Amino acid sequence: MDQATTLQSPASGTPEVVEQLRSAVEAYSKAFLTGDGRAYDMLTARCQQRVKRSEFELILAAAKKQYGTNLPIRSYDAKVSGIRARGSYFTLCR
């Protein structure tokens, strides 16, 4: 996700930054699982160069058909270093 501007903080890896990352991960997960096209806009420019919006919309349609609803995050891990951040999460399917 391209959240570098929202994740900038005086101290990288602070609880505030980690919480901002979690909020971004939750927003992406919700958009993806419900087929919301805004999920594409949350991808980094590098990811958008690798997959066209039209292709991603097919993936979103499949996700909406299979899940159709937001699923709660059951476990979450954040790695923050400088302006780079990675959030890993796990949800349980219904």
Give a description of the structure.
This protein has helices spanning 4-7, 15-33, 38-41, 45-50, 53-66; strands at 73-81, 84-91. The chain has 94 residues and is of the alpha+beta class. The chain has a two-stranded antiparallel sheet with strand order 1-2. It contains 5 helices and 2 strands. The two termini are 25 Å apart. It is flat and about 35 Å long. The protein is 50% helix and 18% strand.
Multimeric state: single chain
Termini gap: 25 Å
Are there runs of 5+ residues with pLDDT below 50, and where? 1-10
Total beta-strand segments: 2
Largest sheet: 2 strands, antiparallel
* Tally of helical segments: 5
Structural class by SSE content: alpha+beta
Strand order, biggest sheet? 1-2
Strand content: 15-25%
Radius of gyration, taken over Cα atoms and rounded to an integer in Å: 14 Å
Q: What characteristic shape results from the CA principal axes? A: flat
Question: Any chance you could write out the topology, listing elements then pairs?
Answer:
Elements: H1 4-7, H2 15-33, H3 38-41, H4 45-50, H5 53-66, E1 73-81, E2 84-91
Antiparallel strand pairs: 1-2
Describe this protein with a few key phrases.
single chain; flat; 94 residues; 5 helices; alpha+beta
Give the structure's gist in a few sentences.
This protein is α+β, with helices and mostly antiparallel strands and 94 residues long. It is built from five helices and two strands.
